Amino acid sequence: MSSTQQLLAARPVALSRWRPPRWHPHLHGSELVWAIAFVLPYALLFVGFAAYPIAYGLWMGSEPSLYLDLLTAPHYAEAALNTALFAGFGTNLMMFLALLLSGFFMRGRWWIKALLPLCMLPWAVPAIPAYVSFHWMLIGEYGFADSLLSALFDIDGPNWFNDRWLALACDIAAYVWKWLPFWLLIFLAGRMAIPEDLYEAADIDGATGFRRFIHITVPLLTNLYLICTALCTIWVIGDFTAADLVSGGAPALSTEVLATLSIHYAFDFGQPERGVAVALSALPVLIPIVIILIRRIETRQVQL
Predict the structure, then answer these.
(1) Which of 29, 68, 92, 242 has its CA 20 to 30 A from that of 137?
(2) Is 64-300 in CATH node 1.20.210.10?
(3) What residues contact 112, with CB distance under 8 A and at least 6 apart?
(4) pTM for the complete prediction?
């Protein structure tokens, strides 16, 4: 038998003996006991505080009649529109301002660097006292805003919470003021990751600051910008503190968002099923955003 025939005859045996490498070998004895002991508490916490509440909420909101009732329920349409304005206008305004301010804080002057810690203060303050303070600055003629207008320009300020659109604007402004520093830091880190060689080459070619921003900064930060926008939109849709603590739904619950309306139905009106249905009605918007966010992270790996 030739050597070639021997190799062909031995190939099935070799293939039958081949096994894929064990990246995670099986545990035995005390190693298995310790592994279970470490994993079991986290598994119980996940089931008790994540899986079970989510499953129970989905079961409470599984009745189709609940969603039909929401179409004629008071304040639901207004809350859905307010949530869309919060997530659409507020999120994009905050991201755009954060991107522009990150360029301002990239300058090397000492007074600009000194301003950065001051700009972080709204984010460092806890949300509840920050929003309550924002509310009291706008409340009535004794609020800080109206008092300032009266002292500087001798005019009477508006009743901030007596008009729906003005009150909603106050809610959005408070949310942007609170969370803008967080996204500013992210975009600032993204700008720092851009190689300086690109900007030096643009300077040699005679590119101005605006052209450098359009042709270098924007393309390299597009992926980061889209991911941050999607993530912020998810958080905004589930946030209730700004609308609840700044305007309190005034006037006449016209500035409610889906999160606050859900809480009112569940705890104030004694209708927990309808409250869950209000919260779950945002899933058709949230699920596509989550899928897009995961795919962009997987394909681009959050790289500049």
Answers:
(1) 92
(2) no
(3) 104, 105
(4) 0.83
